[in-house]
Task: structure prediction
Amino acid sequence: MAGLGLIGTLALAAASVCLTSGCSSIGYYAQSVGGHLSLLRAARPVPEVIGDAQAEAALKERLALSQRMRDFAVSELKLPDNASYRRFADLKRPAAVWNVVAAPELSLQLRTWCYPIVGCAGYRGYFDRTEADSYATALREDKLEVSVYGVPAYSTLGRLPGGWMSDPLLSTFIHWPEGELARLIFHELSHQIAYAADDTEFNESFATAVERIGGARWLARHASPQAREEYTSFDGRRQDFRALTMAWRGKLDTLYRSAASEAEKRERKAALMAELRAEYETMKRERWAGFSGYDGWFARANNASFGVLAAYNALVPDFERLFQRSGGDFERFYAEVRRLAALPKAERRAALSQTGD
Result:
């Protein structure tokens, strides 16, 4: 979900767009530039949409809510006060971009792609689903396990100049439950605070920590009892999903790192995946009253989709402890995160892991 900025050329604009996607060829630059500019051209100032007699009442209400969240992000979470998320774009499609991730048959290590300026990332993004699927097919031909998933939003780190170039609110998420809408806005704004090149796990885990802390505060202080109840149900299923999938991720990782033969690993992997899906069906029946929103994930689950899970969650506890060690002061917390982001990766990880000491 989350490059560095436009410095007079569309090539650098493409590089900034690709902090979650990446650019490695002229064709890729072209689709990145075209896709991002198309998104920006569709955006209108929020007050203009709210004042539009043709706009749906439900959309106007959500946009007004989003602006209260945006103000809260500045005043309470000390996130950047700029033009980001002050405009709205109706993309008329289900995702902003589609990310492609890939991993070997017997490993959870995601393939990475390295690009000018922004460094390396464990995913490659496309504004067109067909192009994403085509690239995924090519990766499968290289014997990789591949996952293609829609991304509702991405961040350009707040480094593109002017309000017109700022990240807008999108139709892909504006009607989400209140708690989820707040968390997404806080998550994407967090990417403007700190960015460590070549360290997707650090960047996404930091943003996830901020969204959790900020989302909880928003719900406690501003949401209605109905919105809090809706979010509790939604988040409860997400926590169950996370606990289940991370447990099986650990089992698969242990298997792949073991001294077993490749044949033994393949056999045990198939058994683990069958056990996972059976466990999911039990959880869906006994805890979720049959809720089927995760069916697609479990049907397509593979090493690539398990690899993505770590990027967003693995370091979150470390960041949450760092926030507590900062006295719950967001500005002190952000200053320390920026300091860590500037360190070499190995040193950064070692320092972050010591936050619980």
